[in-house]
Amino acid sequence: MVGRFASFLTLPLAAACAPVMGGGDAPSLPTAADVDGALFVAGKFGNMLSKVDLESGAVVASVASCANPHELATAPGGAHVALACYGGQTVDIFRTADLERVASVDLGENARPHGIVWHAKGDLYATAEGRQSIVWIRDPLGAAQAFEYASGQQGTHMLAIAPDALHAWTTNLGSRTVSLIDLKTRRAPRSVEIGEEPEGIWLSPDGDTLWVSARGSNAAFELDQQTLAIRQRVETGAFPLRITLRPQGDYAVTSDLADGGLSVIDTASGEVVRSIAVSSPAEAEARTQVTILFSPDGERIYVAETTANTIAEVDFASGTVLRRLPGEGGGDGIAIVE
Fold first, then answer.
1. What is the b/e burial string over 313-337, where b = at least 16 CB atoms within 10 angstroms of the residue's CB?
2. Above pLDDT 70, what percent of the chain?
3. Is the pLDDT of residue 24 over 50?
4. In the chain, how many domains are there?
5. How far is CA 167 from the centre of its chain?
6. How confident is the model at residue 31, as a pLDDT?
7. Kindly report the CA angle at 165 between 161 and 167, in degrees rounded to 5?
8. pTM of the model
9. DSSP H or E stretch at residue 285
10. Could you tell me if residue 1 is inside a domain?
11. Comparing C-alpha atoms, which of 326, 302, 331, 306 is closest to residue 314?
12. 70: CATH
C-alpha cells in the first residue's frame, strides 16, 4: 500500500548554424563507419521496440512491446534493455542481442511507469506515475523484489538516482515540484516547487548538482541536490521537454520541442553558450523532438523526433545533423549500447 512512507512489495517476474566549441579549425565530421553499437527505440504509437544498427543506420530487429512504451534504460554491460510500459503497469526487460523479452516486473495496479534508470550497481528504478511513487527493483533479472516509495506528488514522471543509490529525485508535472526521496531511511520526501511543469531531470556525474528543465517556464534550473535550493535559473529555447548532461559533465543540453532546437548550457558558468538547430521552427511541430541522449563518448547526441518517426544523430562539436535514423512507431524513449 502506498502511503506517506515507503512500502515493500515482493513481485514475481511476469539549423541555425551552431558555432564549434573551442578555437582552431572545425574538426572533420564523423561518418557512419566511425560509429559502432546499436540504438534502441521505443515506438509509443506503434507499441513496439526496435534495434537500429549504428554503423548501417538500418533497423535490424523489431518486436511488439507493451502498450504505449516510453523510456528505456540499458543494463550495465549492455546485455539487456528495460522498457517502461506507460500504458500499463510493468517494466519489461529485453535481451539486446535479439530483443527477446526475458522478464516482466509488475509494479501494481495503475502504476503507469515512465521514467526509468538502470543503475551501475545493477538495480532498476522507475517512476510509477499513476501511484504517485517510484519503485526500486532489486535483482531485476533474478528474484525481482520491488520496493515502493511514495512521492505524494501528482505526475511523478522522470527521475534521477544518486551514484551511491541512497537517494532519488523526481520531477512531478502536476504538482510543479521536484522531490528528493531517501531510499535508505524512508523518511518523508522533500518536495519544492520549481518553475512551471518541471519534466526533464539529470544528475551531474559527481552527484553534486541536479539539473531540471521546466517546459512551461522555458528554463532550466540548477539545484542543490540535497536542499533543492535553486542555484541559478537559465533561460532556454521554447518548451524544454528534456535535459541531459554530457558524460564529461561540462555541458547540459535541453530539447526545446517548440522551436526544434537544443540549448547548450555551460555547467561551469550556467550560461547558454549556443543553440543547435535540429529542425527549423516551421518543422518543429511536424517532428516533435522529445528524448535526447548522448553517446557514451559525448561526441554525438541523439534526438527522438517522435512525429516524424526518426532519430536525429547530431555531431555535438559542430551542431551538424549527420543523418536521420529510423524511429519506427513514434520513437520516443531511446537507449544506446556501444
1. bbbbbbbbbbebbbbbbbbbbbbbb
2. 90
3. no
4. 1
5. 18
6. 58
7. 65
8. 0.90
9. helix 281-287
10. no
11. 302
12. 2.130.10.10
Measured CA to CA, the distance from residue 288 to residue 64 in angstroms comes to 23
Could you tell me if residue 29 is inside a domain? no
Alpha-carbon dihedral angle through residues 281, 201, 178, 273, given to the nearest 10 degrees: -60
Q: Decide: residue 252, CB within 10 A, 0-12 exposed, 13-18 middle, 19+ buried.
A: buried
- For 45, the grid coordinates are 504509437
Residue 260: C-alpha distances to residues 15, 20, 29, 128, 290 (Å): 9, 19, 22, 29, 10
pLDDT 10s digits, 219-266: 999 999 999 999 999 999 999 999 999 999 999 999 999 999 999 999
Range of the domain at 120: 7-13+36-337
Q: Contact 276/7 with Cβ under 8 angstroms?
A: no
Question: Does residue 28 sit within a domain?
Answer: no
CB 327 within 8 A of CB 310: yes
pLDDT digit string (tens) for 84-130?
Answer: 999 999 999 999 999 999 999 999 999 999 999 999 999 999 999 99
Domain for residue 50, yes or no?
yes
| Terminal CA-CA length for the chain | 40
